[in-house]
Design goal:
The protein is α/β, with parallel strands linked by helices. It has 18 helices and 20 strands. It is globular. Its EC number is 3.2.1.14.
């Protein structure tokens, strides 16, 4: 390598470092993301989600019909001013609709998973039967809990967000059990809808022939031990949009900045992949961990809070896209209105103002997209229907539906992270909210999640696990493997993947390891399913987790561009940090 090239590179890095890192901040605390060497898009460790709609349904079914106890039937009759019902025969415990999501209800020392009232019959809920002690039952924990909605909610005024049905039991949901207006446990009118909304149906290939968005993690170049994919190596075949993940935001000025000095070297190579009428290159901002502890903990909430701060962000973002040649912006705010993620209640309204003002400023020159979570509580804070007129599309993150964050509440059992039945369930609030399916891209994970099983005699769904799976050789993160690493393990160990029936995922087992994942087969199946439900496209997280097919860029002096970056610039970047 010529000394002049090294000097030029070092000079460039010094200038880049000075430009993106204000003197009042240092690279390790302000803009060097703590999640640069990661696989997953979301950081769910800050406020671990639980499948509240499924858990609520389980608790409801445990108190309905033949599953209701004598004490509950008496309590229900008294609440309605009716005489006690006749004695009923005991029945066996019901089987919940999502067995893999179902914790035991409750008991002494075991509160309800959703923090509802637990009574001495082991039933969770919000009715007097659950929360008020009587001659027949005693409330043993969370006895002052309020229902999600309806007459037993806080001050009896809470409505279901996203217009879901408010059940007799005070749980919001989207099933017949929540929405029925008949029988002993009717839906509560005035607190949401009282009819089931079905998913849209189509016969054309709206998704597979529509948008195909892929994220690209720039941090893989500097931080992954092997299997790095440079922008010029990305397989762009069939893609319509390519998102560079992630840019950062200055927490004081709200200017958009590179998350790492290395990214400034990758931007030109990345945006050069764009092609008129074929492929657009966008910048994605934020991401998992951005709202974690640190200087940017409240940045999203702060920048969206006033017209002046929103204008500062929008102006900077416009300049940033113009400078580097991006054609659109994707916002990945994780998550509005969540206190543990630096949010506050007014985030929902402020986000709508931010997106509306971005749309007005961008016109037709730049596109806007937003990453949407699957968790109901997170999703409700976005209010998607209010954002829909101003975005080009939504990227629905249909993965990370199960993981280690739920073990404490739901039990450490093997669960697939992107099973189609779970995806269908998480989409129900979207349909209730009235979101146009054509605005949605179905998320597809190019990685798998795994665990170390408790016993090699039990390696199927719902078997117990003792810890996370071993880290991959290149990605180095326990509990998760890139698709490339999974493919290598299958090849090296001569494994035969198992198709998970009805799940639209596969699994592999070896030693005491269990991994569930998507591959080209399941991705194609999910795309066909998305076609049937009128989705406007699909989205990949992330394209750098498989092999690229591009060729390394050649520099003007004939040296390999990737070798220059990897062999010289990367060590300098690490030293610079």
């Amino acid at each position: 390598m010529y000394p002049s090239v090294i000097l030029l590179t070092w000079t460039f890095l010094q200038v880049a470092h000075a430009q993106i890192v204000p003197h009042s901040y240092n690279t390790t605390s302000a803009f060097a993301s703590p999640r640069r060497n990661v696989i997953s898009q979301q950081d769910l460790s800050l406020t671990p989600p639980i499948p509240i709609l499924d858990i609520g349904l389980q608790h409801m079914l445990g108190q309905m019909g033949a599953n209701a106890t004598r004490a509950e039937n008496v309590s229900m009759a008294e609440a309605k001013g009716q005489p006690p019902p006749p004695e009923v025969s005991p029945v066996s415990k019901f089987t919940p609709p999502h067995q893999n999501d179902a914790p035991a209800e409750c008991g002494p020392g075991q509160p309800c998973a959703d923090a509802s009232c637990c009574n001495s019959e082991g039933k969770c809920g919000f009715k007097p039967y659950n929360c008020i002690s009587s001659t027949a039952t005693t409330c043993i924990s969370n006895c002052d809990a309020h229902a999600m909605c309806g007459v037993d909610s806080l001050q009896g005024q809470q409505k279901c967000e996203l217009n879901l049905c408010c059940s007799y039991f005070g749980y919001c949901g989207a099933t017949d059990a929540h929405c029925t207006t008949q029988g002993q446990t009717p839906c509560q009118p005035g607190f949401g809808d009282c009819q089931v909304m079905s998913a849209p149906n189509c016969t054309t290939k709206t998704a597979s022939r529509g948008r195909r968005v892929a994220y690209y993690q720039g941090g893989n170049v500097a931080n992954r031990a092997c299997d790095q994919v440079y922008p010029s190596q990305i397989n762009t075949t069939g893609l319509t949009h390519l998102n560079f993940a992630f840019a950062s935001i200055d927490p004081v000025t709200f200017s958009v900045t590179a998350a790492d000095p290395m990214d400034l070297l990758l931007y030109p190579q990345f945006t050069s992949l764009s092609s008129p009428h074929r492929l657009q290159t966008w910048i994605s901002i934020g991401g998992g961990g951005f709202s974690g502890p640190g200087p940017t903990h409240t940045t999203w909430s702060d920048l969206s809070s006033s017209p002046l701060t929103r204008a500062a962000f929008i102006s900077s973002l416009t300049d940033f896209m113009h400078k580097w040649g991006f054609q659109g912006a994707d916002l990945d705010w994780e998550f509005p209105a969540q206190p543990d993620s630096g949010g506050k209640p007014e985030d929902t309204a402020n986000l709508a103002l931010l997106i509306k003002e971005m749309s007005a400023a961008f016109g037709t020159k730049y596109g806007i997209s937003l990453a949407l979570p699957t968790d109901f509580n997170y999703l409700a804070a976005f209010d998607p229907i209010a954002l829909q007129p101003y975005v080009s599309f939504f990227n629905f993150m249909a993965y990370d539906l199960h993981g280690p964050w739920e073990a404490a509440r739901l039990g450490a059992l093997l669960r697939p992270q992107a099973a189609l039945p779970d995806i269908e369930s998480t989409l129900l609030p979207i349909w209730f909210d009235g979101v146009d399916a054509n605005k949605l891209n179905l998320g597809l994970p190019y990685y798998g999640r795994g665990a170390t099983v408790s016993s090699t005699s039990c390696v199927d769904l719902n078997c117990p696990y003792s810890g996370l799976s071993r880290p991959g050789q290149c990605t180095g993160q326990a509990g998760i493997l890139s698709l490339k690493e999974i493919q290598d393990i299958i090849s090296q160990r001569h494994l035969t993947p198992k198709v998970l029936p009805g799940i639209f995922q596969k699994s592999i087992t070896f030693d005491d390891q269990w991994i569930s994942y998507d591959d080209s087969d399941t991705v194609a199946e999910k795309a066909q399913w998305a076609d049937q439900h009128c989705f406007g496209g699909t989205m990949i997280w992330s394209i750098d987790l498989v092999n690229g097919n591009g060729r390394p860029t050649v520099s003007v002096d004939g040296t390999c561009g990737n070798a220059l970056i990897h062999g010289v610039v990367r060590p300098l970047i690490i030293a610079l940090r």
